[in-house]
Amino acid sequence: MLALGRAIERGYDTVRFVYVSPPDLKQSSEALLAIGKLAAQRTDIKIELSVALSAESAIQQMAQPDDILIGSRAPQTLGIIEYAASQGNCCCYLHT
Questions:
Q1: 93 SS3 class
Q2: 90-94 and 68-72 strand pairing
Q3: Are the C-beta atoms of 62 and 89 separated by less than 8 Å?
Q4: In angstroms, rounded to a whole number, what is the distance separating the alpha carbons of residues 26 and 66?
Q5: 10 Å Cβ neighbour count for 81?
Q6: Residue 66 contacts by C-beta under 8 Å, 6 or more apart in sequence?
Q7: How many CB atoms lie within 10 A of CB 23?
Q8: Average pLDDT of 61-87?
Q9: What is the DSSP string of 7-47?
């Protein structure tokens, strides 16, 4: 994953994924499993996962520039992800 490589190059030892999607979406559990597998595979950087229930919480949990906000393209999360992206944070949508 490109973002992890960039974080390592910048000298970070930890990258945090901040997850912001409605818990009832099927993609939610798949995404969380994928991040868990990635964390188990990578030994060169620590990967943490946290869940945010609001835009404020999501932004507060992103401690460094290479932390990644991820979520499903759902009406409940579009505003949060777009706001974080407008603030210069790394964001991505899950395929739905």
A1: strand
A2: parallel
A3: yes
A4: 27
A5: 23
A6: 3, 6, 7, 10, 12, 15, 90
A7: 10
A8: 77
A9: HHHTT-SEEEEEE-S-TTSHHHHHHHHHHHHHHHH-SSSEE
Q: What is the CATH number of the domain that holds 67?
A: 3.40.50
Please say if the pLDDT value at position 1 is more than 70. Answer: no
HEC sequence for 39-61? HHHCCCCEEEEEECCCHHHHHHH
Q: For residue range 10-66, list pLDDT tens digits in order.
A: 898 998 888 887 666 655 667 778 888 989 999 999 999 888 877 778 778 887 777
Full residue range of the structural domain in which residue 42 is found: 2-94
**Dihedral angle over CA of 30, 58, 86, 88, nearest 10:** -90
Strands of the sheet containing 14-19, edge to edge, are 46-51, 14-19, 68-72, 90-94
| 37 vs 55: CA distance, rounded Å | 26
The answer to whether 31 touches 74, Cβ cutoff 8 Å, is no
